[in-house]
Amino acid sequence: MLLERLKERCESAEYISSAYVCGYELSFNKRSKDCSGKATIVENQYSTKKLYGALFQIDAKERSKLDKAEGNGYTRIDDFVVVQSDNNEIETTTYFAKSGATGRKLRPYSWYKQLILWGAVQSSLPAAYLANLVAIQADRDPDNERNEKALCLLRESWGDVFIKGGWDMKIAGHHSVADWKAMKKTLEVGKPENWEQAYKTFFVTRIKTRYFEPIRLLQKHGKNEGEGFSIVALQCSLIEFLASIRDGVICEELKTKDCSQEGCSGKIIINENYVSSAKIFKKFLKNNEPFNAGFSSTDKTDSFYSDVRCALLHDARTKGGWKIRAKSNSDAIISWSGSNQEKILYRNNLQSAFEQYIKNYEEELKIDKNLQKAFIAKFDALCEE
């Protein structure tokens, strides 16, 4: 769908409008000689969703060039009827993958997906459709030359996204920086459209792949020989992520520099966009359900931060009388008997609290403008190299 790519094949190509058809679905089951899956559309009479695309005009003399570029695995259809945005039906030419040229479990390469995705952005296709394109799984092409050739085209229109090498850095499962920047274009603060898709594609995927799945494996294969420390270390890291995405901040201990050489005394704070991880960690536990049922006081959050979070990450141990247990007979996250008494963290109960929190967060995100702004700010920060 990217105009620059089509012009490489047909110099006369001009964009006309977006268009759609019903009864078809996008598929990447066309088997390519580079071992990836290429795009085609397949008939599905039960589908009621609109399949969108871009409509171009080319000189008839260049049709053979397009046939050659598409290759023998496609067959050309010259009377394919599509509907333009003004509900006008028009006969067009399109290409379908031949039945003998398809395969199963094929994925596109990342650069190929981005050509389609940003072609859709270029054509101003509906936000919901763009969100579905973002969710497509893609693999990195081992051929750097093919990668670079596609990037040259993408940089012509979207240099701010692809000018740096980090465009394909994964930030949520297989979803990349470029995927997020395309998804961001579908989001509007204060409007509910596509926030659920952004939540599932980026927020849930990041949490599941980086936190929940490793924790589940430790729970399943653990032998009560200390793996609880690893589980809680991951959970403490997750608390900081959830806290930072709720407030839209970057977590880092505040840095200072000595300015005595500059004609003043003492130290000044730099990196003003950063906040102390201690501050947001404790605030999150104390102010958000269901965690606040256990961490209802400053004493509890202070002790948990210093004697569990910091002690585990720095010394691989707990301090201050804290013990880690798998679970309790109730839903309690912690057992707290006083500052000088034994304190117990129930890691499985804490995990259940996380699961409940992310469900609640989904509903909040759809309607809360501040959470939406914070969500965008945090994922923008995750895209930085």
Ends apart, CA distance between termini = 29 Å
- Count the helices. How many? 12
The CATH topology assignment of the largest domain is Hypothetical upf0131 protein ytfp
Strand content: 15-25%
Radius of gyration: 26 Å
Shape: elongated
CATH homologous superfamily grouping of the largest domain? Gamma-glutamyl cyclotransferase-like
Q: Main sheet, how many strands, which sense, barrel?
A: 4 strands, antiparallel
Mean pLDDT: 89
Number of domains: 2
Total DSSP E strands: 15
User: pLDDT under 50 segments (min length 5)?
Assistant: 259-272
* Structural class computed from helices and strand pairing: alpha+beta
Strand order of the largest sheet: 4-1-5-6
Helix % is 40-55%
Indicate the CATH architecture of the largest domain.
Answer: Roll
Order of helices and strands: HEEEEHEEHHHEEHHHEEEEHHEEEHH
The first-level CATH class name of the largest domain: Alpha Beta
Provide key terms for this protein.
385 residues, alpha+beta, Hypothetical upf0131 protein ytfp, 2 domains, four-stranded antiparallel sheet, three-stranded mixed sheet, 12 helices, 15 strands
Write a brief caption for the model:
The chain is α+β, with helices and mostly antiparallel strands and 385 residues long. The chain has helices spanning 3-9, 63-70, 110-122, 127-134, 144-162, 177-184, 195-221, 227-247, 277-287, 298-315, 347-367, 369-382; strands at 14-22, 24-31, 37-43, 50-57, 74-84, 89-97, 170-172, 175-176, 250-251, 256-258, 267-269, 274-275, 322-325, 334-336, 343-346.
